[in-house]
Write a structure and sequence with these properties.
The chain has 16 helices and five strands. By secondary structure, it is α+β, with helices and mostly antiparallel strands.
Length: 364
């Protein structure tokens, strides 16, 4: 399937969480990587060091002092390779924090000589970061996704057993949606449904998001409900289901069920760990949107979006959305100075965001 998609992007045709449980390392900026440094797998149960001996789309095997430890893909939070160049590690960290454009620049700093003695898995990781960063940067900037989509599809065709398989299928689907290829996007999302429960939830939620973008709100609602109906109670699935609940709340708001949308969003907020800041940022944006849709709760909406701006501002997408709404709400509340302040932060910090483009015509 991916080869066909690669050709589709190449012919010039015309979302993560993410979420969530994807295997993107969040390593900090540390000293130069050394070949003798151990590999690390960070799972829901903690960090284990050793030597990664094999990867598949369903998990990673790590040799820990002669004992093989198997980590299912839905339990993995991070994978780090001891022998990877520092710029590769830094780029992947940027990618995991939503700084895709910065990741594109950083991974370009990896020099050929740094890979002379690199193992195949490190070389594969470089290809992954390059493709994923390009794809996410294209989505964030709202530019033509053709080249980025081709890179992602080619990675999948070349590395069908990569531990990044599911993350890249999701990204491929999002790029295809942006390119206007809904049928191929559905095929990409369907690949996630063949994985563990958390990815089955994500598959249905991704389809729902596509339908929501097409303003097919009842159909999107049905897909979000299908995501919530997946029989699973593991931590990864629970995290994905909370995201699906937020999607359902957005649908309820668009369908005029504002009180139900507020209640659902508030429920997600109450049940979410304070450390899940990315999800909470999304949740407060959904809550603010539901209040705005009600038509007479601008003050409640303002508080919700300010919570994102002041507390849960680590995700560029969520922060930009909150700022865009604050620009409008401050203006409506006859507070033009605060509106101009929010507009300036938005345009200075996230110039490629669709929210920045939306408010570009305003004063300031």
């Amino acid at each position: 399937m991916s080869g066909v998609v690669a050709r589709s992007f190449g012919s010039g045709s015309a979302r993560w969480a993410a979420a969530g449980v994807m295997t993107l390392a969040a390593a900090g900026l540390v000293g130069p990587a050394r070949a003798q440094a151990p590999d690390r797998v960070v799972s829901n149960d903690g960090t284990v060091t050793g030597k990664v001996v094999s990867v598949t789309k369903d998990g990673v095997d790590l040799d820990e002092r002669g004992e093989t430890r198997k980590f299912p893909i839905d339990q993995i939070r991070e994978v780090q390779f001891g022998g990877e160049p520092q710029s590769l590690r830094a780029a992947r960290s940027m990618l995991s924090r939503g700084r895709a454009a910065d990741a594109v620049d950083e991974v370009a700093k990896v020099e050929a000589g740094e890979l002379d003695a690199a193992e195949p898995l490190v070389r594969d990781e470089l290809e992954f970061v390059k493709a994923a960063a390009a794809g996410r940067a294209a989505l964030a900037a709202g530019v033509d996704p053709k080249d980025a989509g081709r890179m992602v599809a080619e990675f999948l065709a070349k590395h069908p057993q990569s531990h990044h398989f599911y993350a890249m299928q999701l990204l491929l689907g999002d790029l295809l949606v942006r390119a206007g290829n809904a049928d191929k996007a559905l095929a990409a999302y369907a690949a996630l449904a063949k994985g563990p429960a958390a990815f089955r939830v994500q598959s249905a939620a991704a389809k729902a998001a596509m339908l929501f973008g097409q303003q097919k709100f009842p159909e999107a609602m049905a897909e979000y409900e299908a995501a919530l109906a997946v029989d699973a109670s593991d931590e990864a699935s629970a995290a994905q289901k909370r995201g699906a609940e937020l999607g359902k709340a957005r649908c309820l708001a668009r369908l005029g069920k504002h009180a139900d949308a507020v209640t659902l969003a508030q429920g997600v907020i109450k049940r979410t760990d304070p450390e899940e800041k990315e999800l909470l940022g999304r949740a407060y944006n959904v809550l603010g949107g539901a209040y705005r849709a009600a038509g007479d709760k601008d003050q409640d909406a303002l508080i919700s979006f300010l919570t994102v701006d002041l507390v849960y501002n680590g995700s560029p997408d969520s922060h930009a959305e909150a700022l865009g709404n604050l620009v409008e709400l401050w203006e409506r509340g006859k507070n033009p100075e605060r509106s101009r302040e929010a507009r300036k932060i938005l345009q200075d910090s996230y110039p490629a965001s669709p929210w920045a483009k939306k408010v570009a015509g305003g004063s300031g």
